[in-house]
Structures are given as structure tokens and as C-alpha cells.
Specification:
It is built from 8 helices and 8 strands, in the order αααββββαβαααββαβ. It has an 8-stranded antiparallel sheet. The protein is globular. Strand 2 and strand 3 form a beta hairpin. Helices cover 29% and strands 26% of the residues. The chain has 232 residues and is of the alpha+beta class. It binds protoporphyrin IX containing FE. Protoporphyrin IX containing FE binds next to strand 5, helix 7, strand 6, strand 7 and helix 8. Protoporphyrin IX containing FE (HEM) binds next to strand 5, helix 7, strand 6, strand 7 and helix 8.
Length: 232
């Protein structure tokens, strides 16, 4: 059961993430635990999905926020700390300003050969020497989502070389992609991209994001916020 205080904190948090886009629809503004279809999406239910990750921005958590930069579209409220939970966070901590949720999923565009290359090179986030991290939430345009999947793949790889480009930076940079459109409740972004790396890779990471942002794929990005983090 959600307390009154928690409900209003959730509404506040939603507004902080939505920024100028005002993503909270009237049907959800006062009832954050029912999905549009009317299915129950209780905190208990969400907590059980092992693919779910929750990123909470506020004044607590192991990650120190160095900057919150709007790359395209509205920014998000600045926060001093970030915590990352594998699962749901039904009781957001006092001091939380926003929370973003996403689930890991199967690949959509990656070929067998690319999966093999990635598997041979990539490492999972969480290495002890990965003291730097980036949380980059991204929303793509309606024009992107209107394309059939084969045309999206062409833009993603044949024209933008996303995987080929990114693979050059493995295993230095570890990544995890979270999908938000697969959740029952509307989220302000389509993807939460998470990366961590040792301090020596900080310059390479800047190069990687600059390369990707210059591609055709990024013409379909309508909102992107770049949140940079460090931990002791
Ligand atoms: C570290 C190097 C990187 C590698 C190896 C890499 C690899 C990949 C792969 C394989 C996918 C496709 C998964 C699928 O088939 O569904 C993907 C998707 C994605 N990546 Fe990256 N990536 C890297 C860096 C980045 C960076 C720096 C960003 C953001 C600035 C980013 C943003 C995304 C997004 C938003 C998607 C989802 C695209 C969509 O489904 O429309 N990636 N990445």
C-alpha cells in the first residue's frame, strides 16, 4: 500500500524527470500504480523482474554526479548522487529527486557475427577499477519508431556503424542497455544507456559519444541527457 507521502513524492519525481516535456498524462498523474491497460503494476510485481533496473537521482548513493548536460531537448533536475538498483524501488529514499526505470532485453539489430564479436570483447559493468560512469537516457522520434525494423537496422549499422564504432572501445568501456518502452507504465525516455570505465578511458569515452552523435542514427534522437558520474 502506498502512503500519501510516497504518492506525492512520486508525482514530484515524475515532474523532475519529465522536465519541459510534461510526460505525466492525466490518467497517471494521480495513480502511478495502474498501467494504461488497467493491469496491476504493483511495486511487488515490478520488484520480481530480474531484468528491471532503477536509477535514482537524489542526495544519496555511491555515484557522485559530476554533471547533468542536456544534449538534445529538455534537461533533468540536477542531483548530487545516483544509486542503481537491480529491481524496483517501491520506497524511494528521502531526498530522491527522480527515478528512471528500464529493463535489459534481447537484441533487435545485432547479427550473429556481431554478437560473436561483442561476446568475445565485452565485459560487464561493475569492475572495481571502473570509477567513472555515464547514464545517458535517450528518446527517439516517432519517425524512428514508424520505420520497419529492417530500415532501422540499416540506419543503425549499415549507415551509422553503431556496433562497429562501439566495438573499438571494448573492453575498456562496459555497457548495459535498458529498454523503457517495454514497461507497463510510460517512461520519459525510450532507453537508459549505462557505461562504466576506468579513469584512463575518460577521453576515449568522449570520442565515442562524439562519433555516435555525428551519425545518421542520432538524427532520430529527440531527447538525450548526459549524466556523468564518479565514485571513490
Ligand atoms: C561502448 C561501445 C558501444 C557498443 C559496443 C554498443 C553496442 C550496441 C549494440 C550492439 C546495440 C544494439 C542492441 C540490439 O541489437 O538491439 C546498441 C544499441 C544502442 N546503443 Fe549502443 N553501443 C555502444 C555505445 C553506445 C553509446 C555511447 C550510446 C549513447 C550515447 C549508445 C546508445 C545506444 C542506444 C540508444 C541503443 C538502442 C538503439 C535502438 O534500439 O534504437 N551506445 N548498442
Amino acid at each position: 500500500m502506498l502512503g500519501k507521502g510516497l504518492l506525492s513524492r512520486r508525482r514530484f519525481i515524475s515532474a523532475a524527470v519529465g522536465g519541459l516535456t510534461g510526460f505525466i498524462g492525466p490518467s497517471h498523474a494521480g495513480n502511478p500504480i495502474m498501467s494504461e491497460s488497467g493491469n496491476s503494476d504493483s511495486p511487488d510485481h515490478r520488484e520480481m523482474n530480474p531484468r528491471l533496473f532503477t536509477f535514482v537521482g537524489g542526495d544519496s548513493g555511491p555515484w557522485v554526479v559530476q554533471r547533468v548536460d542536456p544534449v538534445v531537448g529538455a534537461s533533468m533536475s540536477p542531483v548530487s548522487r545516483l544509486s542503481v538498483a537491480n529491481g524496483g524501488v517501491p520506497e524511494l529514499p528521502r531526498g530522491a529527486v527522480w527515478a528512471l526505470r528500464g529493463v535489459t532485453s534481447n537484441v533487435r539489430y545485432t547479427t550473429r557475427a556481431e554478437v560473436a564479436t561483442l561476446s568475445a570483447r565485452q565485459v560487464a559493468p561493475g569492475r572495481p577499477d571502473a570509477t567513472h560512469a555515464a547514464l545517458i537516457p535517450i528518446k527517439k522520434t516517432a519517425a524512428w519508431w514508424d520505420l520497419p525494423i529492417d530500415e532501422r537496422r540499416k540506419i543503425f549499422e549499415e549507415s551509422s556503424h553503431h556496433i562497429a564504432l562501439g566495438s573499438k572501445y571494448l573492453p575498456m568501456i562496459a555497457r548495459r542497455l535498458h529498454h523503457c518502452r517495454d514497461l507497463a507504465l510510460p517512461e520519459p525516455f525510450d532507453f537508459l544507456t549505462w557505461f562504466d570505465y576506468p579513469s584512463q578511458a575518460a577521453e576515449s569515452f568522449e570520442k565515442l559519444v562524439a562519433e555516435l552523435r555525428a551519425t545518421e542514427e542520432w538524427k532520430y534522437v529527440e531527447r538525450e541527457v548526459d549524466i556523468r558520474l564518479t565514485r571513490e
